[in-house]
Fold:
Amino acid sequence: MQLGNLTGNWSQRTTRIFDAGFATLVTALSVIGIITGEVEGSERPWDWFGIILVLGFSLPLFFRRTRPLLTLNIVSIFMMGFWIFDYATNFDTQLLFAIYAATAFGVDRRKTWINVGVIIVVTTCVAIIGVLVPSEDLPFSAVITLALIHTSGAFFGQNLYDRQLRLRSLERRAERAEAELEIRTQLAVVDERTRIAREMHDVVSHSMSVMVVQASAAQRVLDSNPEAAKEALAAVEATGRESLVEMRRMLGVLRDAHTETELTPQPEITNFEVLSQHCRDSGIPTEVTVIGDEISLSPGLRLASYRVIQEALTNVIKHAGRATLVNVKVEYGTSSLVISVADNGLGAATALTSDGAGHGIIGMRERVALYDGTFSAGPLDGGGYIVNATFPYEVASDNRVARQQSKNPFARTDRSA
Structure:
């Protein structure tokens, strides 16, 4: 808003400076015109009264944008006085400028055109009287030419007014479209957060169910097998800690409390075969690469990373165009999980929506932000599109799965059509 105000103020100052320069230039040319004008027939040579008339129909042009009708009236009065006193001049086009400005910048169109029409008629009549006066040598063709010039100036001004009107209409439409897009984006964010909260609700509910089962088992074997009971209670504690973390996140996003959720199994990030199959079915070969040892992550983080890859691949299918290859890379780093999905298509995977209930880029960004991660998406140099997401670790346990990349059956190149 502040930048817009600065731009507007600068534009207004520039316009005023231009108008002042224009009025000064016209005034100077008019003064030079009356001084250097050749006196013929009954024409009068210049004097100070003629200079006053010149200033009267020249200087008001400074206000031709802000006070167009007032400027037109002042200019026309002084101009007709200049003609009646029959001063000789080489420059007297101010009335044309004033008529043009009136029809170009006048707000009340009916009043403007009445005023312009009356002035054109009156000035034409004054010119006709000049033709009829015996001592004048003004040809009648000059009167017709003068009337046509002033009328043309009025219609040129109207044309500028119409163009400005259309431009303002387009600007208002663009502003409304931008406001509507912002509203749709906000609604999409709310909808996506609601979907994320529902999925996290499923995760937390599943963890609670596991805790109940483990606590019940510990209670049954507490007397007969204390060690087994301790292990079950330890599992209850670990699961409870994970559930508390996911519960805090779930409370941080919007959720429709009236929508019933189903306790369905949640997808895992390690289901690369399921993820890449969608692209293969669409005719896009997919390369999946896993770097580093797989780490046991919390259920919510596993779900979030899975959804990011899923949404990115869906965008490739919908928007990448002539993509012939998709590279999916999952890297288990020392402190974070790094995901990238890149294609060699048209680089246009920027749509806000995707199939199903998701919202593409918005959904991915929201999921990553939920885990305090970083997200970026954009076109690649030379074509293609890439999605990058980094999730800081929240390790569910210190158990690292002893599975190297070379042993991972899905860390391979899939070149099937």
Notes: Residues 254-265, 349-358, 395-417 have pLDDT under 50 and may be disordered. Residues 273 and 409 are 9 Å apart (CA to CA). The chain is about 60% helix and 10% strand. The beta strands are 286-291, 295-297, 326-332, 336-343, 374-379, 385-392, 395-400, 412-414.
